[in-house]
Structure formats: C-alpha cells, structure tokens
Amino acid sequence: MKDFLKKVLLFSVLVFAVVELFIRFSHLTIDVPQREITVEGIQKYIPNQSGYWSNASHKWIINKYGWPVEAPDSMKNLITLIGDSHIENFMNSSNCQPSYFLKEMNPTYNFLQMGRSGASLIEYLEFSKYAQKEYSPIQQIIFVKENDFPESIRNVSVKDDVTQIDIKTGKIFKGKMRSPRLKKIIYNVKTIYYFKDKVKFKTLKKIVKK
What we know:
By secondary structure, the chain is of the alpha/beta class.
C-alpha cells in the first residue's frame, strides 16, 4: 500500500511539474507584478519589473519609479496621468499607451502614467500629492469613473485594500494589501493561478449571462 501511495504521489508531482512548465513556457496566464506600500501609504509596484501578458502577446513594464509603462526620458514639463486599470493598461503594449500618443501629439511635454487597478478616487488624490512631492509636475490629469466615488467612501462600504475616507470624521484610511504572501505563492505557481483564473472567468461569465 505504501509503495502504491508513493507511486501515486510521484506521478502526481510529475504531472504537476509538466503542467506547470507547459503553462509557464506557453505563457497561458499573465505574469503579475509585485507591489509595495511606500512610507506615505501609496500602493505602487516594485521598480524595474517586466513580464508577459497572457499568451505572450506583449510584455508589460514597471519603470524605475514603480509605475506601469516606460518612464519618460525627462521629468521636465511633466504631466501625470492618474487613474485605475485604464491608466495602468497592462493589456496593451508600450506603443499603445496614453502617454505614448500624448507625447507624439505634444513633443514638448513629458507624460507619466500613475495607474493601479482597483484604486479609488481618494487614492488618485493621494497619488497626486505624492507626484507633487516627488516629481513636481506642471499639470496633473485624473481620470475618474462614476464608481470611483462610492468606493472612496468608507461610510458606504468598507474596503480595506483601497484608500478610503470617512466623510463624518474626515479621517483617511490607507489601503492595505490583502494576503500578500499567499498572493505571491499563487501568482508564482502558474498552475494554481491559471485554474483560479479559469474558475473566476467562468463564474463571471455566468453572472454576466444572468
């Protein structure tokens, strides 16, 4: 019985390893960049990372400042573009970014995208304060969607992973990263992340259909 269990375990490990290598080298799932929280409570990415988008269609880049997309050549005449996943824009290559097109249309200015998926309006304002201190931009553009407003208000619903404000007291609650160690394991073991993503997609598909 012990020999049988050992063989089953060994076979399972080998199958898992083969599946892991296949998913990893076929780039069937995205590489997820690692985040950090600054002393100011800003959630941004660890600088100088890169990885593949799903199916290796292109590579995403985290620049030396810890923001998505390549950094501008100069920080003079800087305009920041602040927002959520639409500004983070991992789903598109470097030559299909807001900063790229704006630079082509306005070559005398430089553009820095400061985006993070799931960020709230209050978080955008914190990004803006951070940018003013670190980069001294001449202008800042904040891209806002309707749901960014209620997400920012702690009195509407508590979300610990995003920065929120209590409108009764005026107190700001900085966002925290949920289960960072567990997420790191899930993102690095591609087999787990691939099947987790598939289950999530099927669930979302059912909800949308309903």
